[in-house]
Design goal:
The protein is α/β, with parallel strands linked by helices and 485 residues long. The protein is built from 15 helices and 15 strands. The termini are far apart.
């Protein structure tokens, strides 16, 4: 039976062990020293715990990203080799749900390997992160690695898409599409740290996420093996998965299964499945989780001011929180006003159409703010080119090509072209709507002395006659030809 250990500041352990056994929740008292030692951020739900076992302790000492290490008391007879081949160690994208809990013993049985479970915190909420240590251990994992990626997610993935104005098929703000490459990149880093020769995920063969994960793996470490159980095993549904779990003594998660398939992160919450599979059905009111019904939103509007520097949000109402905290606060503000609900039928990368409902309260507010500021700072030709490239940018991100040189080159253009998109925007939030009320920028191309109806020195209205005659010359020549003139 595996034993869990953690450093404690309250009690000094015997010199012979240097460790104090803990039975309930993992807690680390010397958070700062351990954080520095192992290079991991402080976790809100499990601390910077280092757990000891016979196989993984030495690796934990040298692998900087390790949050937790678990030993397994579940053995799978493989005779040194799995049913499908031999791998030494596999890093699995792990959520603790039924599918990934079953994948752990399946990998061990079929590839004779140790399994390192990896969980990324991209803002899905603490309730989805609780108890993962015990679940991973019970499933047979060798190690559990947890990384807090929220700030990286917002700063390095969300903000570039926001600056580019990337929207897929007129509506989708790319919530899941942006999250997958940051998770996959972290998996590659963990694979290097623990010496894994393969990675694995629980995506099905019908969705977009399998492409997003695997293209990132190919781009960053092409020699790494990729194991995708859903494209190999005989499990076809939930009942098969439960039966497999029971056969291998893996506790089935007891959480109530939602009738919807959901994906949540700091940017959005998506809903698919059940009645939504018929595009004719209106979503049920109790389905939404991040936002109130606009009909139930406050009867008084709320005004907020967003500060922007070079196309990137930096402040909210004069305060400058971190990127993740700024987005979190906007999610709360936008959610209570019913902002950011989208119902759409989209074209998946694999060819089929799917219907999804998205909640993106904070993101909708930020998109409105950046777009409105660009109206001041970008000229007509630049805005048209930027908007045309934004469509391709969104398509690349949706298709999982984040690390494609084309997207990176387009991002360099977006960064250069928005260098003067600096200023502030005041927005009015009211019952599901976002309305701009004020925009200011030191780089504004708007000139009141030119735009005014009053006669000015810069713009002579008499010049318009010659301009119109020249601009309309092609139309005039065609009309003359048709009339025999």
């Amino acid at each position: 039976m595996a034993q869990l250990h953690a450093f404690s500041a309250a009690t000094v352990a015997p010199k012979s062990s240097g460790l104090l056994q803990v039975h309930e929740k993992l807690c680390c008292s010397r958070r700062l020293s351990l954080s520095n030692k192992f290079g991991a951020n402080v976790s809100e739900f499990c601390g910077n715990a280092v757990l000891q076992n016979s196989r993984c302790t030495s690796e934990a000492r040298k692998n900087h990203a390790i949050k937790a290490v678990l030993s397994s008391d579940k053995e799978v007879e493989t005779n040194g080799r799995g049913l499908r081949g031999k791998l030494n160690k596999v890093v699995l994208a792990y959520s603790g749900g039924l599918d990934t809990s079953v994948i752990v013993p399946w990998l061990r049985e079929n590839y004779g390997c140790e399994v390192v479970c990896f969980t990324a915190d991209v803002g899905q909420g603490l309730q989805e992160l609780e108890g993962l240590e015990q679940k991973a251990k019970a499933s047979g994992a060798c190690q559990l690695v947890v990384k807090d990626l929220k700030e990286e997610f917002v700063k390095d993935y969300i903000y570039p898409c926001l600056r580019a104005g990337a929207v897929y098929e007129r509506k989708y703000l790319l919530g899941t599409s942006m999250a997958r490459p940051v998770i996959a990149k972290a998996m590659v880093d963990v694979a290097k740290e623990v010496g894994a020769d393969a990675v694995s995920h629980g995506c099905t063969g019908k969705g977009n996420d399998q492409v997003r994960f695997e293209l990132t793996f190919f781009a960053l470490i092409p020699a790494l093996n990729v194991v995708v159980p859903w494209r190999e095993w005989d499990i076809t549904g939930r009942e098969d998965a439960i039966e497999y779990a029971q056969k291998h003594n893996v506790p089935v998660p007891v959480t109530k299964k939602s009738i919807y398939s959901r994906d949540r992160n700091l940017w959005h919450l998506s809903h698919e499945g059940d009645i939504l599979e018929d595009p004719a059905n209106e979503p049920k009111k109790d389905m939404y989780m991040m936002s109130v019904d606009p009909e139930d939103a406050p009867n008084t509007p709320e005004y907020i001011e967003i500060g922007i520097v070079s196309g990137i949000p930096v402040s909210l109402n004069g305060k400058e929180p971190s990127p993740a905290n700024l987005l979190s606060e906007l999610n709360e503000i936008g959610g209570r006003h019913g902002i950011g609900r989208i119902d759409m039928v989209e074209n998946r990368l694999v060819g089929m159409k799917s219907r999804g409902v998205y909640e993106t309260p904070g993101g909708t507010i930020l998109f409105s703010a950046v777009r409105e500021l660009e109206a001041l700072t970008l000229d007509r030709e630049t805005m048209q080119v930027k908007d045309s490239l934004a469509l391709k940018y969104a398509e690349l991100v949706y298709a999982g090509r984040w690390f494609d040189p084309l997207r990176e080159s387009m991002d360099a253009f977006m960064e250069q072209i928005t260098r003067t998109t600096t200023g502030s925007v005041t927005l009015k939030l009211y019952k599901g709507s976002v309305t701009v009320t004020s925009r200011k920028s030191p780089y504004s191309l708007y000139r009141e002395d030119i735009s005014s109806f009053e006669t000015g020195q810069i713009y002579n209205q008499a010049d318009a006659g010659g301009f119109i005659r020249l601009y309309g010359l092609p139309m005039r020549v065609r009309a003359m030809l048709e009339k025999g003139m």
